[in-house]
Amino acid sequence: MAPHPLRRLAASGMAYQSAGLVAGVLAIVTLPLYTRHLTRDELGAAETLLTWIILASILLRAGLQEALLRHWFHDDDPDRRARLARRVTGWVLLTSTVLSVVVLVLAEPLSRLVLGESLPGPIRATALGIWAFTNLEILNALLRAQEARRTYLVSALCNVALTVGTTIVLVVVLDQGASGYLLGNYAASTAVLAGLWWSQRGLLGRRTTGAGGRSSGVDAGRVDGAGGDGDAPRGSDSDSASTEDRDSLRSLLRFGLPTVPPEAAVFALNLIDRQWLVHSDGLAENGVYSAAGKLATLVIVVARAFQAAWPPLAYELSDEEAPRTYANVVRAYVLVLGWMIVGLVLLRFQVTDLLLGPEFASAAGALPWLALGWALWGLTWVFTTIAGRHHATGRTLPSALLGLAVNVAALAVLVPPLGATGAAIALVAAYVVALGSAHLRTRRLMHVPFEWGRLAAAVVALTVLGAGLDWVAAPDGAGGILLRLAGCAAAPALLLAVGAVKPSEAQLVRRAIASRLPGR
């Protein structure tokens, strides 16, 4: 019997982000090292460039990551899957290499444009980051398509270990500042990327035969042909031809490219905030914003786990079971992430004092808002896959652009009086608007029976718990801290009491936990 969709999603998410969880814990543990060896300016510069790397990667992948997953589950023929993998990896390797060379050549003017200062060293490290991160994301998508969870986990753990070790050496021992912080991340990724290419050599190097027995072992760059699905029976010559057309690079780009503007626009919200702070308040204030983002790591890990695990499940579901599963997944996501955000609201002062030190104390104001912003970002993938299931991948672009407009307006209003905290609030406002609009624009494609009553109960209960206790409990002292901890622990019971969680669901969770206890 197939596993329950929520259980499968959790298992996949744990597999895909177990290393991310380890990395998140290590990032929090090592954060005091970095904040004591990097100035606010250096951390602000490095984190801004890290965000640029991710945005550049979204553009370079051209939606081929999404197209790979969609087409992989459409056809289980090994030869066609091999062609699909080669076309996607080959194109992304080419485009990422070209852009990385351009960034290397233009390092000096780019540093003045992006950072407001002459810092070519970090820009050169960014060139390596763009190349390594983009190609590694494509290889990770290929592993997810194959549901090769063990390989994914081993490679990710190796990446974490190499990254932490290299970054500590470059930043703490050799005092290489922002350049060392960036190189520590992406030198490790380059080594892992080489290992994954080697492990996938059987798939990526396979010679396949297309329609009519023609060898297609070197067709990775073919761009001609862009037919439809065809109506001939599977296995016929016409079906082979139409499938080859469907899996041509042009056809893959036709599916994937419309996903790029909305995804890039949604992610650009995280970049606009940083660039606004850089040019209005300077790199130091952006360093405070970036430090708050690092403290939101555990929320980011869960959001990224959902992002990695959700598309394979979302595309494989039948039209009958998809709507209910989408609704259940969204409610589970809101409950889990909401609880985590309440914890950050109530304990933000202690976390900031412990991990950042006095120079970054003002990050406590931005922390819960950034955590909420990242949680909302994870939900955007629900609407992306609804559009993808119906080949309407451009449907969410107006929503993303609307979010960008709201973000810019909110930044203009909130940053002058509130600094980094104002930028974080602007991010949340933008994602709320973008998500609401995306829901309205995709609901005709698939009616998802969201349980609005239970969702509203969860949001209201968690908001009252977090904001109420934050208002009445002292931010320091044993009594205040104990009261805040008690509030965090009481959140599940409160969610059950207001009906956000069904009693049967709570019972299932208790049984699942009990079954994993020693001796059971």
Question: What does the model show?
Answer:
The protein is mainly α and 520 residues long. It has one domain. 79% of the residues lie in helices and 0% in strands. It contains 21 helices and no strands. The two termini are 23 Å apart.
Shape: globular
Question: Largest sheet at a glance?
Answer: none
What is the structural class?
mainly alpha
Classify the beta-strand content into a percent band: under 5%
Radius of gyration over alpha carbons?
A: 23 Å
Distance between the termini: 23 Å
Helical fraction: over 70%
Q: Helix segment count? A: 21
Total of domains = 1
Which H/E pattern describes the elements? HHHHHHHHHHHHHHHHHHHHH
Low-confidence stretches: 210-244
**Number of distinct beta strands:** 0
Average pLDDT for all residues: 81
Q: For this entry, what is the oligomeric state of its chains? A: single chain
Which helices and strands occur, and which strands form pairs?
Elements: H1 5-37, H2 40-61, H3 64-72, H4 78-105, H5 107-115, H6 120-145, H7 149-173, H8 177-199, H9 201-204, H10 237-246, H11 249-256, H12 260-280, H13 283-295, H14 297-316, H15 322-355, H16 363-389, H17 397-418, H18 420-442, H19 452-472, H20 478-497, H21 503-515
